[in-house]
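Email to the structure team, subject: D-alanyl-D-alanine carboxypeptidase model.

Hi all, the expression group asked for a predicted structure before they design truncation constructs. Nothing fancy, just the tokens so they can compare against earlier work. One-line instruction: predict D-alanyl-D-alanine carboxypeptidase, return tokens.
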Amino acid sequence: MNAVPKKTLRLLSLAFLLSHSLSASARYAAIVMDADTGRVIHEVEAAHRWYPASLTKVMTIYMTFQAIEAGRLRLNEMLTVSAHAARQPSSRLGLRRGQSISVENAIMAVTTRSANDAAVLLAERLGGSEANFASMMTQQAHSMSMYSSAFHNASGLPDEGQISSARDLALLSAALIRDFPQYYRYFSATEFAYKGRVLPNTNKILKTYPDADGLKTGFTCGSGYNLIASAKRDGRRLIGVLLGAHSSAERFKQMGNLLDLGFEKAQAGVAGMRVEQLVDASYEPPPFQLSSNRCAGSAEQMGADSGSGSSEAIDIRPNHPSRQAAKRSVKSRYARVESSHSDWAVMLGDHRRKTDADVELKKARHVLGATGNSGQPQVVRQKIKGKQLWRTEWSGLDQNEARSYCKKLRSRGFECTLLPGNA
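Reply from the structure team: attached below.
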């Protein structure tokens, strides 16, 4: 066997390190959709698989509402706490084995306090066991076109097989609001009074964003800090999902920005694809978002190493001076608006692997820095001569911006091709 030249080995090692760096680096997934039309207004990796953490409980409660409406469960029914439910780790209500709690209080404990013990208690009542209920959850998800989702428990505690996506969770949230408007108030409550204590809702978006009226928080080391929020303004209801923030404060701040961005784009008349049309062709495993040295317990359960997850911040900026260009970019991408001024693009290259395209896009972002604030950077799947390729491009630019971007990128060794509007 011929030895591999040292130069080739170095290049292969560099490619591996870049690919590994990408999979370990900070990422996030997000979506904003119109709850009434099911149209996507904004998304970033929305179909990519992710660990849902306690956002899982939205499905647990959806199925609880189903059972109540079908007459198989009553709000005032008393449930007896099992040993399994009582053993659940935090966050929890502190239920003890043999104790009784009403279905309504269990729902409130889940929606306001994200109580794992209450979620398991409801699961056992509806499925006979938590494991059986988890199978029912997965079946329910697939019946709702949540094809990236699989559930192994009712709470969202760390499990390699417990996966979903921002797209799927947006679908679920829209279904919950549509199918059970009479019960949505449980996700809007700002506090929960239980046994002489008044417990505040962990979902601070209800207090920090004026138009928000629900839904749910979630956190594990694997997922990062997650949030689903719904807000209504001028008769339009939006649902936002943000997965992978690096702190609780970041998720609330960036969700506010995400919803602002959604309302701005909706007002501008963005007509996106239906949420069901978003697909993840990569089938990559969920990223592990936070490092094991920050979250040793659940990280070790899921096999993370100390290098998992960087602290690169999420930055969603709806009020940037170039927001009009961003709106035009989104219109061009989703609604095929015929415009000759802001639909120029720069193409950096085609790659056989999405990870290589992602690396190139990340490097281009770094080179452009603050000058790269206009338009829409993206990795787009292409089929050329029967082969699937991943194209790195920057769309939604005017002619001068496109020329400026290419000039700067070429000066740093990038191949850059101008793609004129209406080309």
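The two ends are 49 Å apart (CA to CA). Residues 1-26, 296-310, 320-341 have pLDDT under 50 and may be disordered. Ping us if the truncation boundaries need rechecking.
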